[in-house]
Amino acid sequence: MLQGRAAIITGSSQGIGAGLAKYFAKQGAMVVVNYPFESEAEKAKMVVAEITDAGGKAIAIKANVADEFEVIQMMDETVKAFGQLDILINNAGITKDSSFKKMTVENFKLVMDTNLVGTFITCKAAAEIMAEQGYGRIVNMSSIAGLQGNFGQANYAASKAGVIGLTKTAAIEYAKKGVTVNAIAPGFVRTPMTDQIPEEVRNNMIQSIPVKRMGEPEDIAATAAFLASKEAGYITGQVLSVNGGWYM
Fold it and tell me: What sequence ranges are listed for the domain Ketoreductase (predicted)?
């Protein structure tokens, strides 16, 4: 489905991002495994090694999505390595949770800078390259929190709601240039972070999900791969909830 396409997947050294990178490589894409800081370099190299050992093609590139200079460098390195840039999956994101009352302006801005401003920076840089090619697919990661809010996540929910508005606007502006822009709003997905939730709390959350299970990184990856495919060319400006029916 993605044979011969070049894809950047931000924040793909671990968690959902790593799952996305491996899935896209299996679908034939040439993958950039992106990581923000040197402390993540080894994890990114492990993801690349797993992909290449399985016969896929991948490289690791360090870039903090909130830094425009680093993002532009990443785009240039991608085109230099693969000759093109066809797909951008904006997966990078952080959390700094606390109640509204206790949340600091610093932590609010920090989350917004990575999750929303970072998505804008990468979208803008990638879309211009794709527009020149006359083809491109951008998929931004929102969240169920961006649709319904979540206690203790005013910064995260606001950033993910902002991603939806950004997605729809970019979709309008780039549609005529052959570039589609969509968003995915994942629900409760199994990651190293969610594995740390106490079992009783996790089980209670699962009981609130109609399909009675957590999502897997592959559930998100399969959705992203479809939206990133040529076959999804008539879909743009949409937000696809992947949450097992938790929020409808």
Answer: 5-187
